[in-house]
Amino acid sequence: MLVAVYNPVAGGCTAKQVFEDEVFPLLAQHKKSQLKQFSTEHAGHAGALVKELIDSLDAGVQEITVVLGSGDGTLHEIINSATTLNGGRNVKVSIVLIPCGTANALYYSVFPPGEGEGPHDRLRSLKSYLGGGTRKPITVAVTTPVSASGERNPHPLLSSVVVSTALHASILYDSESLRKEMPGIERFKVAAQQNQTRWYHATAEFTPIPGSGDVQIYDPSTKLFRTVSESATKLEGPFAYFLSTVNVDRLEVAFRITPLAVSLPPSEACLDVVVLRPLRHPDTTSESEECRKEYVNHLWGTMTGAYRGGDHVNIRYSNGEAAVEYYRCGGWKWIPAVDDERAHMICTDGYITQIERGGHASCSIGSQVDNEQFAIYA
Ligand SMILES: Nc1ncnc2c1ncn2[C@@H]1O[C@H](COP(=O)(O)OP(=O)(O)OP(=O)(O)O)[C@@H](O)[C@H]1O
Fold first, then answer.
1. pLDDT, tens digit, for every residue of 243-297?
2. What are the chain's domains?
3. What is the pLDDT of residues 96-153, one digit of tens each?
4. DSSP state letter for 6
5. Longest distance between any two alpha carbons in the chain, whole Å
6. Rounded distance from Cα 348 to ligand 1 centre (Å)
7. Of all protein residues, whose CA lies closest to atom 18 belonging to ligand 1?
8. CA 377 from centroid of its chain's CA atoms
9. How far is it, in rounded angstroms, from Cα 14 to Cα 369?
């Protein structure tokens, strides 16, 4: 089954126009105009629609192709509604992605614009599909909130781009209220400034990559990953930044936060995690107001490297230590300090979930079955 779904309010509200002017005419040229078409009417609609369509398929039909005009958030809704992990049928979902959102992290990671390239072609996934191109599996990260009594939430949250806490989760949380006045990526920058002196108290624990059986860290002196000892797989806060990605090396077209996902690709599905802990900086001697203010310069000095092609991963402090701790793992557990309210926020592809006080969140790479259910035409 082939369907078209677009979110008319994603990004700069361009999806309707893009579909009418570019997507539908190209589909018609390829004799594929007989498809069901939907414009989403409310948040959550895309996920409900695709789930309904899957449920209506004849028993023998094992695949649905969705020409999707949206950002990463609407794709996130579809994945979470359709996944077998949340009771969905085991039907393969192939996405033809038309980037109509604000950040479009997945699209720009799969189709990065070349250096000095002009306006970016937003029909590359569609052209791949029409030309019989490749279905690239979408690896999922599975995040489970766990209550104070140790009860795992029965509905895990799937992500196809990012799972984060700390600064990034705060940015996504605060930027949502700025969406109307700032439809573009500038709202993320405003929210970042609002949160730049906040640190997050928590403990993070990494679990091994399933195949290799180890947790790895990037070493800028060798420009390679190495195995970390078991005792070094547990990190104490405070944290400024804690973010893991799957499928992407960037969160916006020019913000390559996990560049090694592409430049040093892993041999199997895993999570790339970028961590910044202020007290690792040689000049940061305490958690005082003064140190927090001073650390803002170090924070942005490092993070802006993501806008320079991802060179933050090679920045080193005066003591030779890497500014960024860049891990590769099979999963992680985030245990917020009970009295740090903001440390209880988890962001999964832009959606914010609160961890129960006294509880924690665990995130792991999806199983082979989970990682084979969804794919994007690339
Ligand atoms: N008709 C609608 N009215 C209001 N909200 C909608 C409607 N249709 C979808 N949504 C919601 O719009 C939100 C934003 O969509 P989406 O994430 O695709 O775009 P974006 O946030 O602009 O882009 P990105 O995620 O790439 O930054 C989603 O949370 C989705 O649930």
1. 999 999 999 999 999 999 999 999 999 999 999 999 999 999 999 999 999 999 9
2. 2-133 (3.40.50.10330), 141-367 (2.60.200.40)
3. 999 999 999 999 999 998 876 766 899 999 999 999 999 999 999 999 999 999 999 9
4. E
5. 66
6. 14
7. 71
8. 18
9. 35
Atom of ligand 1 at shortest range from CA of 183? 22
Shortest-distance Cα residue to atom 17 of ligand 1? 73
Question: Is ligand 1 within 6 A of the CB of residue 128?
Answer: no
Tokens of 128: 């791949």
Whether a cis peptide bond, with omega within 30° of 0, leads into 238 is yes
Kindly report whether the global pTM for this prediction surpasses the value 0.80: yes
Q: pLDDT for 63-88, tens place per residue?
A: 999 999 999 999 999 999 999 998 88
Q: Dig out the tokens for 309 from the structure.
A: 């092609």
Q: Which residue, by CA, sits nearest to atom 14 of ligand 1?
A: 10
Residue 181 Rama label (left phi>0; alpha psi -120 to 50; beta): alpha
Residue among 50, 66, 70 whose CB has most ligand 1 atoms within 8 A, to mutate: 70
The finding on whether 11 has its CB within 6 A of some atom of ligand 1 is yes
Q: Give the residue from 97, 105, 71, 69 showing the smallest Cα distance to 183.
A: 71
ipTM summary value = 0.97
Pairing of strands 271-276, 241-245: antiparallel
What is the Cα–Cα distance from 63 to 33, expressed in whole angstroms?
19
